[in-house]
Amino acid sequence: MVSKLLPNVLQAKQAGIRTMLDCMPAFFARDVRLLQMILQQSGMQIDTSTRYYGAVNNKYLPFWAFT
């Protein structure tokens, strides 16, 4: 997956973009290891969400979100 994403990230960096925002919420397919690899190989800053996603009758929320 890194080999597919890295060229696009490097192209964005070359265009002057310094920070990318990853809006994928926790517990909904966010891959922090992938983000870390992209970060390390590109030197790009990546900010990621720490929020939850409550759609589909709260299907993607952990039990502690209700306490």
Structure report:
The protein is of the alpha+beta class. It has one domain. About 40% of the residues lie in helices and about 10% in strands. It has three helices and two strands; from the N terminus they run H-E-H-E-H. It has helices spanning about 1-15, 30-40, 55-60, and strands at about 20, 45-50. It is elongated, with a radius of gyration of 14 Å.
Give the key terms.
two-stranded parallel ribbon, 3 helices, elongated, 67 residues, 2 strands, single chain, alpha+beta
How much helical structure, as a percent, in the residues? 40-55%
Provide the β-strand percentage band.
5-15%
Kindly provide the radius of gyration, computed on alpha-carbon positions and rounded to a whole number of angstroms.
Answer: 14 Å
Note the gap between the termini: 36 Å
Q: Which sequence of strands runs across the widest sheet?
A: 1-2
Tally the beta strands: 2
In round numbers, the mean pLDDT is 87
For the record, the count of structural domains works out to: 1
Number of DSSP helices?
3
What is the H/E order?
HEHEH
Main sheet specs: 2 strands, parallel
Q: Which regions contain 5 or more consecutive residues with pLDDT less than 50?
A: none
| Secondary-structure class | alpha+beta
Shape: elongated
Question: What's the short version?
Answer:
The protein is of the alpha+beta class and 67 residues long.
What order do the helices and strands come in, and which of them pair?
Elements: H1 2-14, E1 19-22, H2 32-42, E2 45-48, H3 55-58
Parallel strand pairs: 1-2
Helix pairs in contact: 1-2
